[in-house]
Each structure stands twice: as C-alpha cells, then as structure tokens.
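Thread title: Can someone regenerate the structure for this chain?

I was given the following input by a collaborator and told the matching structure tokens would be attached. They weren't. Posting the sequence so someone can regenerate them.
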Amino acid sequence: MGTFEKCLIQTGGGDNLEQVLQCISDSVETCDSVKDDIYKSWLLVICGSLIFFMQVGFAMLCAGCVRKKNVQNTMLKNLLDACGAAVAFYTVGFAFAFGGQNNTHDVTFIGSQNFFLMGDVNMAFWFFQFAFSATAVTIVAGTLAERCQMAAYLCYSVFLTGFVYPVVAHAIWSRNGFLSAFAADPYRGVGVVDFAGSGVVHITAGCTSLISTYILGARKGRFHDNRGRLLPVPRTIPGHSIALQLMGTFVLWFGWYGFNPGSALLLRVADTGRVGARAAVNTSLSAAAGACSALFTNMFLKERRTGEYKFDLPSAMNGALSGLVAVTASCGTIENWAAFVVGGIAGLLYLAGSATLVKFRLDDAVDAIPVHLANGIWGMIASGLFSSPHGMMEAFNQDDHVGWFYSLGQGSLDGTLIGNQILAICFVFGWVTCTMLPFFLWLNYMGWFRADSLDELVGLDLSYMGMAQTQLAKNVTEDLSEVGSVGGGSHKERQDNEKGDILPRNPPQSNMGPVEGLPDDEQ
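Best answer:
Regenerated them for you:
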C-alpha cells in the first residue's frame, strides 16, 4: 500500500483534501528522516572503521621504531590496546563519557547511565566513540616501548579508557559537559571548540605519556653508560625499520580522514557534508605543511651545525603527524590558509619539543610527547585564534564568539573563545595528572611497571613471548658490543654489579642450559 492510500484511510476517505496533503507531507518527511538516520549510522561506522584502522598505523610505527628484539612485544601491546579499550569502554567508559546525556541545561561531571550498553544506546555512535578512546590509549604505547612490563601496560590501558579519558570526553563533548559546545547553554556562550580531539584525545594521551616516561625512566644506554655515569652526548637508539615507520605514518594520515571529517557527522547542523569537506582539506594542508616545516628546518639547523645539508625522514614523518594533531581541534572552523599556518608551526613545535625531551633526559622512543602533547596544546590554542565567523556559523550555528584574530580584525577584544580553550587545556592537564600520576607511582612502587634489567638487555620478546636460544645469543652479544665491556674489574665493580648498579656481563644461567652461539667463556 502506497503513501497516498494510507493517508486516504487515515483521513477517513479523503473528504478533506488539506488533511490528506498534510498526511502525505508528514509521511515523506518521516521517511526522509529515517533514511538520513540510516545513512548517518553507516557513515559513522565507516568513519569509525577508518579511525580503528589507525591502530595498524600505530602498530607499524611503533614496531619500526624499536629494535628487533622487542618487535613482537610491541605489537602485542598494540593489540592489547584495542582489546582493553573495547572491554573498558563497553563496561563503564561509554557510560561515564556519554551515558544519559540529554538536551537539558543540567551540567554533570560524569555520566551515570548505559553501563554495559544497557538502555537506549545508538550503536553507531558507541562504535565511533570507542575508536576514539582506543586511539588515545595506543598513543602511549610507543613512549613506553622496550622497558615496560606487560601487566602494567594492560592495567594502564583499561584504567585510561574506563575512567580517565571518559571524564575528559564528557566535559568537552557530552551535551551535559561543563565545557561542551554542544550543551543547551554552552559555557560563556560558546563552550570549547575541540572539533575532533586535539584536547580530548591528544593532550590526554600526551600528558599520560609524559608522566609515564618520567616515572619509568629511560632505556638502558640512552643517557647513561653501563656504570650509571651521564653520557656527554645522549646515545641514539635507532629503530630497526624506517620503512615500517613511513608506512605507519601514511596509514595514520589516511585514518585521520575518518577522525576529522567524520566528526562533522555529530554536529547539529543541516549541511554536515560541507563542514566535513572543509575538515578534509584542512587536514591535508596542515599535515603537508607540518612535514615540510620540520624537514627543511631540521635540514637548515644541521647545515648550521655541521656545514652539510642532510634530509631526515623521521623529522618529516613526525612533522606530518604533528600537523595532523594540531589541526584536529579546528579543522572544521578555520580557513584553508590558517590550516597551512597551523601545520607549519606544528612542525617547528615538534622539533623544539623533541630537543627539550633530550635536554631533560626523558626517553620517548617514538616522540609521542612532542607530537601529541605539544601540538595538542597548540591545536587547542589555534582553534581559539583562527576560528573564522564563517566556519563557526557552519559548524556550530553561532558566530558571536570567534577566533581572537578575527575579533581584533572586527575592532573587538573578545577573548571568550581563546579563554575557554586555555581553560580546557588546564582542565585536561590537571585531571590526567591527578589520576595517572598516582596510578603510575603505585605501579612503580609495586614493582609492576619497569621490566627487569636482564629482560631489557636480552629483549622483551624473549621474556614475554619466547624465542630461540640462537636469537638470545645474538641479542646478548649485540647489546654487549653496544654498551661496552661491563664485567670483570675490581672487587668494588663486582659489588656494584651485585647491587644492580651496572648491567651484568653474563646473563645468569637457568634451566635453559647452555646458550647456543655464545663463546665457551661466556656460557
């Protein structure tokens, strides 16, 4: 039965033509609305899948940045990221972040409904947000590479996804969050503009990385020699595959097109397609500008120091990722030229942040802290500086409070938006510090955080994954040749060895028997 026949029956035979036409109009609108919901759900699933595919990029990037003896362990931790995030977000994470959100003026610190997906939950929305939470967790994987225990890593991933991240997401993205631009009555009339997560995802993950690496300490031989003496020049520990790093970078860039344009689907505006297209273009421009900025600035600095021009591929890759992180907060509200500026500055911030880590002897195997923390902060600030009236109207249906540079151009000193952005940065940094710092200190106190020195020497693949004895012999001899002779010597040196002040020359014998491939005097 067609719509016309149904309307004739509903209106009592069609004696009133106006009622029949109104019925047909309402039916068509309802049908269109249902179709829109179906299309939107499928697009959320597709964009969420692109975001989840970023897990492959992170796994490749991390695997390429570590030594061969730690590749399997690193890959397993990336897999556990996704598993832990799924369990935690299903049980409590989603409920804390978005549970029970409504269009009232109520402001809450944390959600309190929809635990275990009970109640009325939009499954497409859950999947999309789960992909975001998994991304926040896996960012930290590279920072802790080659020296973190497996149990500690799984504990941290569940805690971050189940409690820490959801509170940040609730505050900035939930309709009842106190900083949310989606609230019925946004804070100071505009809320916080974090379009796709420079603050919610990247500052949260970057701050966690900073706290964890400070407590965990550097890898053996990175800043100190085998007797604990500070090296005059920090030792670079190169990864085993630059090809994996580059492919991982491209996969992440590709996944970002689900991250940024996909977030436009959550806006309450009529033309989300136009906003999504703007986000896609700005994402591309910022990534390109970040890569070029970091590559050529690093080349210039090396020429000034050494007199020779040298291209550095890791600088370009991390510069591109920095540009992607920085534009994530504002990709839907800034103009194209501003995206290029944001990305260019992001590349410079990456170089400065990476050098700062080395200065303070903080070991970040993949430079996640300068990429995600430094540029997450810059991205939030850039949103408060460059958000245009046109972009704000298209994305949020208001242009009363725009980027500070535009306010100056209009003869106003309205700093409402930039003030809100800075407040959000402080909130995220404070919340993550107050929760993750005690958590990591507790793990470290219990002895569950850092891997044993011998495990680190021979590789975590052997300790946690199992490995052939010939590969063990190769790992030991390679690492001893890198670190230098550490055995023998005076009685005092042997005492230091026993206290764990320096690494032992010979790994202790176990029920494994002789190690194939080692000289007889080192068995």
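The chain has 18 helices and no strands.
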